[in-house]
Amino acid sequence: MRTQEPKALWENFYSLTQIPRPSGKKEAISQFLANYGRKLGLETVVDEIGNVIIRKPASPGYENHPGVILQGHMDMVPQKNGDKVFDFEKDPICAYVEDNKEWVTADGTTLGADNGIGVATAMAILADKSVVHPPLEAFFTVDEETGMYGAQALEGGVLKGSTLLNLDSETEGELYIGCAGGVDTTARFDFAPVAVEEGDIALKVTIKGLKGGHSGCDIHLQRANANKLLFRFLKDAVANHEARLASVEGGSLRNAIPREAEAVITIPKDGKEEMMQLVRDYEDLFITEYNGVEDNLQFTAAETACPKEEMPEDVQDFLIHAITICPHGVYRMIPEMPDVVETSNNLSTIAMEGNSVKVLCLTRSSVESRKEELKQMIDSTFRLAGADVEFSGAYPGWKPNVNSHILRVMKGIYEKEFNQEPKVITIHAGLECGIIGRNYPGMDMISFGPTIEHPHSPDERVNIATVQKFYKYVLAVLKEL
């Protein structure tokens, strides 16, 4: 991997893969980037939350040009295959070049190209004295993936540049000038457990092998949600086959489509074969319904140690009804841009915490009123089921500016360098530009990047040729500015 061009970029990316940096574990990566800037002899600032800003003086003759900010986030999404033994807080990412020599990917885990490639690009530019550029700031944020907390903590007046290049998009040849805002909804079902019926046995039912993916970029692909499939089965098993729910877990991250989910159910001993057959029937049904979308869907059941307690029947039923009703996926497309998602919801995680079940949703929209509409639908769904509901992590969208100066410049450079027009679009995923723009209302911003497929899943990979093209493009833009 480190022998690919541009070598400095890939060497930096390799270094990033060796530093565990899941969201929420920012100390090591923040210190690494701060030390990197200081070793280069550049002004380096680390704020209270761990964001790092490294400033590089302009090239000769560019001292009076407006400053430019290269911006990316230092954390990565920790996702792995179920059979992969891996600790994201301790183990380095095992990245490698695929046999076709076209892609870099990882062994059974997310790669961290989102946003490691963007960070590695800025690092390479900071170190390269031959790059021609105006005054530069590299701004690396913490904990973007879990709530954009680094950008949220940025105060006005800290950044000195007037143009921001966000290096966190994932399709080469596309320039992003707008994004969706988002909000988290947490519903909590508290209960007093009851004893399991004497003589019952327990089965663990598991759904796995789904593709998952980024809940913004991939939400329109109609991929299966492990939580929704599991509860579809549970509704039938409880209503028609005397099953009771003892525990349930599904999904792992708010911004990743759930790939795996499992539940422990109790049943009368003489109902085991009937329940095993029901699981097989649902597996066949799911495979048929998702033919051509999910290639490795597996739904299985196995007898497990019988717990002493389970959920009371009323809470169990309310939970199952709420998850069944709760919307997931695309809610509305942009009427003027029918290929772009306007509003969506990701029914992301279901987790047991003592005598509580917590359900988390991430709602996105480029229209604030639509985001509020869907948020209130979800709120009503869970409140009617008796849950306590809280909202958190709200962040604004980024309103497109089709008359942006940086957009005109970058369109012209792309056409000149590559003899084709770039696509100018908005993205349904969240970008930090919306938050930064709130505190820096005059900031001219754009987002772009190389091609990264399947971010937020163990299938994540980055295309080598587009990284080369992307880096060449960044250098040409800096020279022009």
Number of helices: 11
- Helical residues, percent: 25-40%
What is the residue-averaged pLDDT?
96
Number of strands: 23
Morphology: elongated
Distance between the termini: 31 Å
Give the amount of beta strand, in percent: 25-35%
User: Using only CA atoms, what is the Rg?
Assistant: 24 Å
| Poorly predicted regions | none
Structural class: alpha+beta
Please outline the major beta sheet: 6 strands, mixed
- Order of strands in the sheet with most strands: 1-2-6-3-7-21
Describe the structure.
By secondary structure, the protein is α+β, with helices and mostly antiparallel strands. It is 30% helix and 28% strand. The protein contains eleven helices and 23 strands. Strands 1-2-6-3-7-21 form a six-stranded mixed sheet. β16 and β17 (337-352) form a beta hairpin. The longest helix has 18 residues, at 272-289. The two termini are 31 Å apart.
